[in-house]
Design goal:
11 strands, 13 helices, five-stranded mixed sheet, single chain, alpha+beta, about 25% strand, three-stranded antiparallel sheet, about 300 residues
């Protein structure tokens, strides 16, 4: 109990029996137990343009009853507003994937930011738990948009769209006219001698660099399952020089063996699918160190 005598605050009284002077003393009770409240779900926009509904659960306690009475008139409302403002500022700086994958890390950061404000009020937040209720709108910057290099985008359209004609290699046209016209016209895709996966992976070579090698420093073996059901093996070596990519097994022992379908490979290279999301959904099978496999994200970022 906080007692005011003639308007002057006294030392905290209680618990137990407290003697008050009528018409002279006034008091305010302060609950020192741990309490909790929920920040109601609100619509927020992430850094990449996604709209999501996010709330939070907050546990707090009052450690200095005098400060809690002297500094803030409505402690509960002030704490709720502080938590909601901190949550909004933190999520506006992050893309949707980071918010979904690092909720615990963001919650710990919110705990520190809220306590920086509330400690001056005699209140301490013990726990913050972020809750992503729903994703109302996907990210706006579609990975298959203009952020991709035109070379890779043209290859994807040429191999997979199958609609608009493109200036294909001259030798391919000669093969169709002179050797096996009926077989070559069966499919609208690329020549059987160059599968879709091989063409897309070959397009990665101009984006490899020494900086990427120093950042990743790993050797990958890519087992790609083709639409026909057969499996084709490729490699991505980011251990020396500027790195290299090609058909077959790597020169040394691979650090990670990754298996996926040809369609998922195309989705990864076009930034429609992220490595972690593909792994969690079972579309990407990894043999080896998972952390090394997730470094493929750095390769995909280099395509911007």
């Amino acid at each position: 109990m906080i007692v005011f005598r003639l308007g002057r605050i006294r030392t905290p009284q209680g618990p137990g029996m407290v003697l008050l002077l009528p018409f002279i003393d006034s008091f305010q009770r302060v609950d020192l137990r741990t309490r909790a409240f929920s920040v109601p779900p609100c619509k927020l926009a992430s850094k990449d343009g996604a709209v999501l509904s996010v709330g939070a659960d907050v546990q707090f306690r009052i450690w200095d009853p005098v400060l809690s009475v002297m500094t803030v008139k409505d402690l509960n409302t002030a704490t709720r507003m502080t938590a909601q403002n901190a949550m909004t500022k933190a999520l506006l700086k992050r893309p949707l994937r980071e918010i979904q994958m690092e909720k615990l890390k963001i919650s710990d950061q919110l705990l520190l930011e809220i306590n920086d404000v509330t400690r001056a009020w005699g209140l301490e937040v013990d726990r913050v738990e972020l809750a992503v209720e729903a994703v109302l709108q996907p990210p706006q910057d579609s990975p298959a948009g203009p952020s991709l290099d035109s070379t890779l985008q043209q290859l994807a359209l040429q191999f997979l769209a199958g609609g608009a004609p493109s200036p294909g290699p001259a030798d391919t046209l000669e093969m169709v006219n002179e050797v096996e016209p009926p077989v070559a016209h069966v499919g609208a895709g690329p020549s059987p001698k160059q599968p879709v996966a091989e063409g897309l992976l070959t397009a990665l070579q101009p984006f490899l660099s020494e900086a990427l090698v120093s950042q990743v420093g790993a050797r990958y073996q890519l087992n790609v399952v083709l639409p026909s059901g057969t499996q084709s093996t490729y490699f991505l070596d980011l251990t020396t020089g500027q790195g290299k990519v090609g058909h077959g097994v790597p020169d040394g022992i691979p650090d990670v063996v990754v298996e996926m379908t040809e369609a998922d490979l195309r989705a990864l290279l076009c930034r429609e699918l992220r490595p972690l999301g593909a792994y969690m959904s079972g579309r990407l099978k990894v043999k080896g160190d998972l952390a090394v496999a997730m470094k493929l994200e750095a390769v995909l970022r280099a395509l911007k």
